[in-house]
Amino acid sequence: GAVVSQHPSRVICKSGTSVKIECRSLDFQATTMFWYRQFPKQSLMLMATSNEGSKATYEQGVEKDKFLINHASLTLSTLTVTSAHPEDSSFYICSVTRSRGPTSTDTQYFGPGTRLTVL
Amino acid sequence: DAKTTQPPSMDCAEGRAANLPCNHSTISGNEYVYWYRQIHSQGPQYIIHGLKNNETNEMASLIITEDRKSSTLILPHATLRDTAVYYCIPRGGATSGTYKYIFGTGTRLKVLA
User: How many other C-beta atoms lie within 10 A of the C-beta of residue A8?
Assistant: First the structure.
């Protein structure tokens, strides 16, 4: 497996503020990181794919100007929720994959998640 | 992307084997089948994956039908800690260029004491 951390684990903020969530790959270099969100009683929904050193690829319907992703190193990606509103309240989860090799199947390893509550 | 069908919920007695089915009839030839589970309020945990052959690791066994249209995850001796939502996810392999996981609704497994 792989160890992935997220910080903070839980955050409460006021409407209109911005919140940054960090995702760290602790025991291998992650070329690709993914960001998901999960609303209560629903499944995970992919928001964006983040490749180190390049712009993130966002899924249809996800606003790239609202959910800023930075993948500046092979072990760290950040998701910033800008001007958060109550409807952004959700469980945000990142995942990482090892650097791709010729026989890699790119298993994703997930972080513990960050619960965001916007008041 | 291949779509999956899983029963929404299952119960299993503690100590017995839990057999979780998944139908992925539209899977393509190079798509692996991955299984994860999610315990309440945690990130998904990787369990096992396979392409054509059956696989076994310390957590579970994966049985894939010969036509690859369905698979079964087997937890040989379920414990209360195995209570979780289990997801099967077809995913493109190393040569397909497909990285994304598309999560379905999964199976909510409840292990009963």
Answer: 13
State the Cα–Cα distance between residues B75 and B61, nearest whole angstrom. Answer: 7
- pLDDT tens digit string along A50-104? 887 778 889 999 999 999 999 888 899 999 999 999 999 999 999 998 755 444 4
Q: What single DSSP character describes residue A86?
A: G
Q: Is A85 on the interface with B (CB under 8 A)?
A: no
Query: A46, B106: Cβ pair inside 8 Å?
Result: no
Q: To the nearest whole angstrom, how far is the Cα of A117 from the nearest Cα of chain B? A: 14
Q: Using the beta-carbon criterion (under 8 Å), do A43 and B105 form an inter-chain contact?
A: yes
* Token pair in block for residue B10: 């299952």
> Sheet holding A67-73: strands in order across?
A4-7, A19-25, A76-81, A67-73
- Using the predicted structure, report yes or no on whether residue A113 has a pLDDT greater than 90: yes
Distance of CA A40 to the CA centre of its chain: 17
Task: Decide: A67 and A84 in contact? Cβ < 8 Å.
Answer: no
> Rounded to an integer, what distance in angstroms lies between the CA atom of residue A86 and that of residue A15?
7
b/e code A85-115 from CB counts within 10 Å (16+ = b):
eeebbbbbbbbbbbeeeeeebbbbbbbebbe
User: Smallest CA–CA separation between B25 and chain A, in Å?
Assistant: 21
| Pair A2, A28: CB distance under 8 Å | yes
